[in-house]
Amino acid sequence: MEGIEKVESKECYMAGYARDGLPSSDHLKIRTVTLSLDLDSIPDDHVAIQSLWISVDPYLRSRMTGIAEDGLNVSQFPINQAIGSYGAGKIIRSKSEKYKEGDIVICPEMPIAEYSIVPTKAVAIKVDPAFGVDPVDYLSVLGVPGFAAWIGIEVIGKAKEGENVFISAAAGGVGMVAGQLAKLKGCYVVGSCGSDDKVKLLKEEFGYDEVINYKKEPDLDAALTKYFPNGIDIYFENVGGKTLEAVLNHVNGFARIPLCGMISQYNKVWTEREGVRNLLNMVGKEVHMQGFMLRSYMNRFVDFITEMGGYLKDKKITSKLKINKGIESFPESLASLFTSSNIGKVVIEV
Ligand code: NAP
């Protein structure tokens, strides 16, 4: 990029809020803007970044409703501005004392664009090549999904050897890490997912003891009776709705239910969301159910990176990526999270 003073950059921007239904190109549009890379035009304490990898996560859907307080309680993307997501990029110009050209960095809110200029404080991590971890791993096992899995299994779930763990959306970015972590803790682990390919992968590569294909299983309650003759100690909740309702028939005393997400409800206005009839079972079983957002656990991030980085380097935890190419694939990639079509963590290679 040396000597280049201007670039044409594709970016994905918020064209209109989507109160319900699948996100689509009606709401997210792509445009090309010209960005000046001339050092004089970059503000002090800013860097210009060439995007390498962009994370596609379900919570982004909740930033598109136009109502921050609803559901996940996340800030809304401003209309007509490039939207942002967790990303990895290369610094191509620097007016920051902290970073230099060529550094590979991770930004929690990187503009979904080929190139961008961001303040130094928007950069969270500089990737140290000596650590031996691929930058894209910071979007998966060492990023949002891995951290969510770790908080759910270790911090809120407090998984102990011999406990029985059930994980929904088990082959997604979060579920594939959560299951492996629970196995490392010595738990019996059952997952649910929506295709036979995922069932095979979870058993053969991620060490799940049993897996339920919920699309082929008409009676989830009966399936849980079969796979959990001794009840469930931890339910790692990713989907909500009928799955949560069925699980509550099988919880043991003092079970823990970390509420990581409820993806089956994200495209619905609250009056259309499913109720859960079995909450009563939580009373007598003294169940602990707790929602969590990673932003409240940043004081544990170093503990997480230390433990998970070790597992990754020792190959005790592996992951799968679903790679889509180019900024223009972002709207469709986001919509695809609400189907069973992806295996593993969905990322965009820019
Ligand atoms: P992901 O990799 O995009 O996987 C999503 C999977 O969910 C899909 O592949 C699909 O797989 C399943 N799914 C989609 N719609 C569904 C429906 N209507 N009913 C049942 N399953 C459905 O997602 P992820 O990154 O693993 O995230 C999983 C959950 O964790 C989401 O709820 C997300 O919001 C949450 N999360 C929370 C935090 C936090 O800080 N609390 C952080 C990260 C993620 P199958 O149908 O094949 O199972």
Defining traits:
350 residues; alpha/beta; Quinone Oxidoreductase, Chain A, domain 1; Rossmann fold; 7-stranded mixed sheet; 6-stranded parallel sheet; 22% helix; binds NADP nicotinamide-adenine-dinucleotide phosphate
Radius of gyration: 21 Å
How much strand content do the residues show?
25-35%
Q: Which CATH C-level class of the largest domain is it?
A: Alpha Beta
Classification by helices and strands: alpha/beta
DSSP summary, beta strand count: 15
Mean pLDDT: 96
What's the overall geometry? globular
> Please, how many helices?
9
The percentage helix is 10-25%
How many domains?
A: 2
CATH topology of the largest domain: Quinone Oxidoreductase, Chain A, domain 1
Cofactors and ligands present?
NADP nicotinamide-adenine-dinucleotide phosphate
- The assigned CATH architecture of the largest domain is Alpha-Beta Complex
CATH level-four homologous superfamily name of the largest domain: Medium-chain alcohol dehydrogenases, catalytic domain
> Which residues form runs of ≥5 with pLDDT under 50?
none
Encode the helix/strand succession as letters. EEEHEEEEHEHEHEHEHEHEHEHE
Give the terminus-to-terminus CA distance. Answer: 16 Å
How would you sum up the major sheet?
Answer: 7 strands, mixed
